[in-house]
Amino acid sequence: MTDSLLNQLVQGIRSGEIVPYLGPGALSDVVHKETDEPIPATSDGLILAMNGGKPMAPKLMWEFARAAMNLELKKGRTFISRFLTDTYGHDKWTQSRLHKLVADLNPHLVLDINRDTQLQDLYAETPHTLIVGLARIAGTDFRYRLYHYQDGAYREVKNAEVDVTLPVLFKPMGTPRPSADYIASDADYVDYITELMGGFAIPGFVKEYRLNRQYLGIGLRLTRDTERMVFTDMIYSAGDPAGWVLIESPTAKERRFCESKRVEIIEASTSDLLQALEAAQESAVET
């Protein structure tokens, strides 16, 4: 990664022209404070944690959503929700270096497809808007909840009540706080992606803001249909190019997909970006 590209990305995130899009790899350095076990974030990590540390059948190990659907059919949807809340709804995880660096850049909008609370914790002193994805609910066409955060508490709000000047944390796959809502199983994704394609899973103020923006995918692999479909609809109406994604060793499938979406692949790891961002931050402090 060249210094000029890094500077372009940093300045773009600061100005709001580039939207960080955080995938599972963004949590690669997070461990449990007591056991030193890594946080379950990747598909494999989530499946093993959900199944008591034991692998499932090969066809189920392909993707967390498929494995979650299998266990949902056997144990109920509440089992999946309880597992995710037990996993992420406590403060025993170490802080992600990447999330801290992203928060320090103060972007207007962050898209985070993980289900942890790292960004919410980092924004604990900052008024902000939280968007949480929903699936399989009755009584509404929309597939999200909106919250206003201030003075240490979240309050659910309607679209008309949103202060569009505040930073926005968009958690499409859910979070345990303030209400445990998740997109996890195949059935959740089918419903959510259908409504995402129809325009009912993204608030209007985000649709307006994202026009001609660019995106930086961090810790994101695009080998599975689920991730690709969510990514495609989230970056709809992006600029040209639509942005960048860090993939250290991209597959031919990822190359074809990114080319079709006008997304440039940066062949570097999340660790490479971390080191570059930390070096840039230290240099800025010294000057």
UniProtKB/TrEMBL annotation:
It comes from the Bacteria. This is SIR2 family protein. It comes from Blastopirellula sediminis.
